[in-house]
Amino acid sequence: MSPHLGLLFLRSRGLVAHGAFLVVSALAAAFAVAELDGVPLSAARSVLRLSWLACLPGVMVAGFAAPPGDAELRAPRRPLAWWRLGWFGALLLVPVALCLVFHPEAASLEGVWFARNHAFMLSLSLLAAQVLRPSAAWLPGTWYLLVCWFLGTKDGLGTPWWWALPGYGPYDPAAGAITVVMTLGAAWTTVARPARVDG
C-alpha cells in the first residue's frame, strides 16, 4: 500500500477535520465516566454521562465522510479498498484506545460501554452518508443523540426507554447485536461505496 495514496486519501477527507476528530475523541474519552447527570428541563430524570459522551466522536465523522474526489476515483481499486478499511478501523479504535488510556481501570464495564456506543454512532453516521447529502449526513445521529439525552431516560437512575440504545447497559444483548450489524454494514459500505455525492 503506497504511503502517497494514503496521504491522498486523508487529504481528500480533510486533515483539519481529522485533527478535530482526535481532539473531540480525547475530550470525550477523558470525561466519559459512569456518573449520572441531570437532564436539562427535568429535575426528576438523569442520564449517564458516559453514554452520550461516547457518541460524540461518531457524530463528528458524518461531517467528513466526504464523497471521493476525482483523484481517489482514479486510484487503483484494491489498495484503495485497504486504505478505506484501515481508515474505518482507525475511526473505530482510536477513541476507544483513548478511553482506556485515560481510564485504564475501565477495561471492563465503562470501556465496553464506551466502545459499543461509539461504534453505534460511528456506524450510524457512515450509513447516513450513503443516503443523504454530505451537508445533511450529520443530522440523524445528532438529532437521535439529543432526543436520547433530553427524553431517553425514565427516572433519576437513568433507566432508558426501549428506543434509547446509548442508555442500555454495556452487556445488553439486543443493543450489542444491533451495534455489531450496523458496524459490519458501515465497514462494508465504507470500502464499497464511500459516500453519496452531492447533486
Verbal overview:
With 199 residues, this protein is mainly alpha-helical. It has one domain (3-192). Helix content is 63%, strand content 6%. It is built from 9 helices and 2 strands. It has helices at 3-13, 15-31, 49-53, 56-61, 70-73, 77-102, 109-131, 139-151, 173-192; strands at 36-39, 42-48. The chain has a two-stranded antiparallel ribbon with strand order 1-2. Strand 1 and strand 2 (42-48) form a beta hairpin. The longest helix has 26 residues, at 77-102. The radius of gyration is 17 Å and the shape is globular. The two termini are 32 Å apart.
Keywords:
single chain, 199 residues, mainly alpha, two-stranded antiparallel ribbon, 2 strands, globular
Give the helices and strands, then pairings.
Blueprint: H1 3-13, H2 15-31, E1 36-39, E2 42-48, H3 49-53, H4 56-61, H5 70-73, H6 77-102, H7 109-131, H8 139-151, H9 173-192
